């Protein structure tokens, strides 16, 4: 985990200060925070004083330990950014983090902003709740190590679940025809260009829209995770919230296997004996002119987002600029539920513990089209006699 990749925009100014540069240098040489990427990133955070030499429980060392204890890389990055926002507030207001009170958290919460298109605006309820939860987790960790005696976030008013749900911005979902057009565009371009980058992009699209995997599952997968199980080809992957040892597999069917095999075959061309050495499943390609960039680095979520939006733009999809990797997961679940695939099977594919979570991904209106209300109306119609419409009809018949 690179320190610069973790650093959020609101901490950039503080991180570029001479004091932060000295701290980062100390972390690299091992004289400050732990000499590792997470330690280096923590050394860039504002408002955290340097740890005393030999202090096992300094704020920076504990913060690095707190980050390492998170279940996934995505959680570490998110918590780092949210904590950086709070510490930036502390630095700007000359507040020592361990002396903070509820009023300070309230003031920070009220002053929160997000940057959208170069403009600042108040964050959504979901963003506000996430930031408060991250800072609360940090203070709880410090309390458990007897570094502070209070968690100033505990009594802070947080957004309700209803407010969070109402404010959540869902990733756009594609229709069946849009999905097919995107898949055809990516594979057709790969066939036409026959380059490693084109086939990799096609593989990314097929993984997104044929498996319902979270993006971290396949960006974190290695070539050795391709396997067979009970005669089927599968991809082993990490499971959200299960820690580093949490693993499961997803079945890979023909359409996906065809594109993935083509990508791996083209990728092998640049290796001796056409054998790709062990490593990540999806990688960057060598720079055509810069030999210092030989490729073979694991793709990031940002890489996948850029690939998806670029391919969607080529396919002429209206939502191209707003798509995210989660669009693939939402689209797969919506498509399956909208075509009468049993909820239990879709829930199993998605890896949801609660079927209501799976239902929450369903963006179709098939529940309206297949509503049993019409059946109920038909059933009751034959037994009702006192409706105004029927009384009117009976009266007209009597007049005749």
UniProtKB/TrEMBL annotation:
Its domain of life? Answer: Bacteria
List the residue ranges of the region (Disordered). 275-297
Is the keyword DNA-binding assigned to this protein?
Answer: yes
Residue intervals of the Tyr recombinase domain:
169-375
Q: What are the Core-binding (CB) domain coordinates in residue numbering?
A: 57-143
Comp. bias intervals (Basic and acidic residues):
288-297
Keywords, comma-separated and alphabetical: DNA recombination, DNA-binding
Identify this protein by name.
Site-specific integrase
């Amino acid at each position: 985990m690179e320190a610069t990749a973790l650093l959020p925009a609101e901490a950039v100014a503080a991180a570029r200060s001479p004091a932060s540069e000295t701290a980062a240098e100390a972390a690299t040489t091992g004289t400050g925070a732990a000499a590792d990427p997470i330690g280096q990133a923590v050394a860039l955070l504002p408002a955290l004083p340097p740890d005393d030499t030999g202090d096992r429980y300094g704020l920076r060392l504990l913060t690095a330990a707190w980050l390492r204890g998170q279940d996934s890389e995505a959680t570490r990055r998110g918590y780092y950014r949210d904590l950086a926002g709070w510490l930036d507030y502390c630095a700007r207001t000359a507040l020592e983090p361990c002396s903070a009170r509820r009023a300070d958290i309230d003031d920070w919460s009220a002053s929160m902003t997000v940057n959208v298109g170069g403009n600042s605006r108040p964050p959504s309820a979901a963003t506000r709740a996430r930031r408060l939860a991250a800072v609360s987790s940090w203070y709880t960790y410090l309390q458990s190590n007897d570094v502070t005696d209070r968690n100033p976030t505990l009594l802070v008013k947080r957004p309700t679940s209803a407010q969070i749900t109402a404010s959540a911005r869902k990733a756009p979902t594609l229709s069946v025809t849009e999905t097919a057009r995107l898949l055809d565009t990516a594979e057709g371009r790969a066939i036409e260009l026959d380059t490693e980058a084109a086939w990799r992009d096609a593989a990314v699209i097929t993984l997104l829209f044929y498996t319902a995997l979270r993006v971290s599952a396949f960006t974190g997968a290695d070539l050795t995770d391709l396997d067979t199980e009970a005669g089927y080809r599968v991809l082993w992957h990490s499971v959200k919230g299960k820690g580093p040892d949490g693993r499961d597999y997803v079945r890979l069917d023909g359409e996906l296997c065809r594109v993935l095999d083509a990508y791996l075959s083209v990728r092998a061309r640049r290796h001796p004996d056409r054998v790709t050495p062990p490593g990540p499943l999806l990688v960057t390609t060598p720079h055509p002119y810069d030999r210092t960039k030989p490729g073979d680095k694991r793709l990031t979520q940002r890489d996948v987002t850029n690939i998806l939006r670029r391919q969607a733009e080529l396919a002429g999809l209206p939502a191209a600029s707003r798509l995210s990797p989660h669009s693939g997961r939402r689209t797969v679940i919506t498509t399956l539920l909208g075509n009468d695939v049993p909820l239990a099977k879709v829930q199993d594919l998605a890896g949801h513990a609660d079927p209501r979570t799976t239902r929450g991904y369903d963006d179709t209106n098939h529940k309206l089209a297949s509503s049993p209300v019409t059946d109920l109306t038909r059933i009751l119609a034959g037994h009702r006699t006192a409706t105004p419409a029927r009384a009117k009809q009976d009266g007209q018949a009597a007049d005749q």
